[in-house]
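Assemble and predict.
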Amino acid sequence: MKKNIVLLPGDGIGEEVTASAQRVLDAVAHQFNHTFTYQTEAIGGAAIDEFGTPLPEATEKACHASDAVLLGAVGGPKWDENPSHLRPEKGLLGIRKSLGLFANLRPVQGFAELLHASPLKHEVVNDSDLLIVRELTGGLYFGTPSERRDDGASVVDTLAYERSEIERIVRKGFEAASVRRKHLTSVDKANVLESSKVWREVVNEIAPEYPDVTVEHMLVDAAAMKLITAPTDFDVIVTENMFGDILSDEASVLTGSLGMLPSASLREDGFGLYEPVHGSAPDIAGQGLANPFATILSAAMMLRYSFAMQKEAETIEKAVDSVLKQGYHTGDLNVKNGQKVGTKEITDYVIEMI
Amino acid sequence: MKKNIVLLPGDGIGEEVTASAQRVLDAVAHQFNHTFTYQTEAIGGAAIDEFGTPLPEATEKACHASDAVLLGAVGGPKWDENPSHLRPEKGLLGIRKSLGLFANLRPVQGFAELLHASPLKHEVVNDSDLLIVRELTGGLYFGTPSERRDDGASVVDTLAYERSEIERIVRKGFEAASVRRKHLTSVDKANVLESSKVWREVVNEIAPEYPDVTVEHMLVDAAAMKLITAPTDFDVIVTENMFGDILSDEASVLTGSLGMLPSASLREDGFGLYEPVHGSAPDIAGQGLANPFATILSAAMMLRYSFAMQKEAETIEKAVDSVLKQGYHTGDLNVKNGQKVGTKEITDYVIEMI
Ligand SMILES: CC(C)[C@H](C(=O)O)[C@@H](O)C(=O)O
Ligand SMILES: CC(C)[C@H](C(=O)O)[C@@H](O)C(=O)O
């Protein structure tokens, strides 16, 4: 197959980790007889510096014309004091909205070699394997009005959803659960928010279409507790944008391997943007020290979700797993009796295993 | 001093735990020569059953006329399917708003005897001692519009704040930090929400009034991570209503002693409502098994914050501590080599120590 991939390195370590993932993708293409072509575009702080905007039109266009997008990371102290339309994150929010990427999938799974670095006790976190399905283009993030009023004496943001937006993300949650352990936890704040009441109704309406999936409703505050006390109780969590932002970051530190976590942001037709969960790590940028695993695993998600290349995706995942099993790791990871190597070297090892 | 306290037992174990706290308060009154009078009123599910509303007018009136309010817990499966104006939580939200209790204080502190029950590793959670100051009468909880539109095709909730509402809660945060370890973490989502940008501005404006307090801004997703990876880094956290709801519940399970956590909801003049953080535990209600410690410690907060009775508050706190040190505990707590006793008995032990 021929696929055209847009690379958005962004800021900090973004360039290094997307370069690594590209090398891995090329190795897979070679192995499986695919042709991947790449186009690199600017986003985030880098785009602000070069083009005066975090999301240049050329970037948007290229993404729309592509088969999938791989993003590194955006942000850094350099742009922290910028006015809000000139902040790197606006590029990320803008491209999600522009591409209609309403479904954010964040799998959280422990790696045996890293679990000892978890802040949780082994018996609490062991065997946890959950997937957060977060709504990504609605809610408080995009609702209007979002403005100051009365000369700055008051301010409002708006949590708005179309019922159809809730329906499509809830379906994604059910679909994900039905190919996993068939347990869906829908998280809301139905005892306070009208939008959560609608959310709960929609979940209950759609549930009969997935009779093999067990559904549970949980309040967001209870979910924030249970992720810590009993993470293994979760299979798939589906929730709205802001709750998903908070809970997925909370979940990302449970297994001691934030540097390993990939994510996918999908449209209905399977098109998607893929990015590591971690940030731009400006402190180690450009030094060849960055951990590329999360971006490489994001590329694997791209193969699976956007290109329907199951075997190819698994090949990458197994390669990463076996490099880690051999004890190779970057400086951010804590592997007992492991060997610390740099970005390029660890990528070489992954490619060797493909 | 003479003080008039309204007791709102509410649902489930609420009656048992408030009865325990009342006995402890009486012991303190006797010891320190105060007179506490009590008036018991209905709230939550119990009020729905008896009066057809979760917050009867008589309850509101009595609270307004009192010197402080002690609440047990509200809610239970019995009322879970009720329409939203007939849900127990509405009573709680209503009384907070009616009394103007904008500042919710939730201290989270480990007890040496219980820390081993924490889901976190000892070295991560040991010595953690933090206070969450949550805005309680604004934001998404009370903003309007909060309604369905277009015949149910869409729904909105509103996150609204007056700048003055932000100012007064931020001041509470600074004040709390200045009598503790002088570190304030202000949590927002300033990279997305306009209200968070105002929040951050207000914090920066007020900071110079508290030169001995170090201020740090943290995004809510980052805070959700750091509470788990480095809880000891926090002293005081100040945040808006919904973020505070999520983060304070997340924080409540860190030390393995949810059943020990008190809370205070305060007005500017020191008037307040006090309640345990835990819920109504309908499964063990009425059996004499409930853990009254969190409610007893909430009563201690009442003495400290509403009645300025520091010594009296400390007497209660020390009594609880020493009962726990002697190994006595209720069934919800996990104390090594401890002795499990019931609500009445453990309350007797606390009173003995006063
Ligand atoms: C950078 C920020 C706007 C973004 C979000 O809140 O969605 C990030 O936290 C994420 O989760 O991808
Ligand atoms: C019962 C519910 C409405 C309430 C809240 O969300 O404020 C509770 O979770 C709390 O934190 O006291």
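Chain B has two domains: 1-104+259-354, 119-254.
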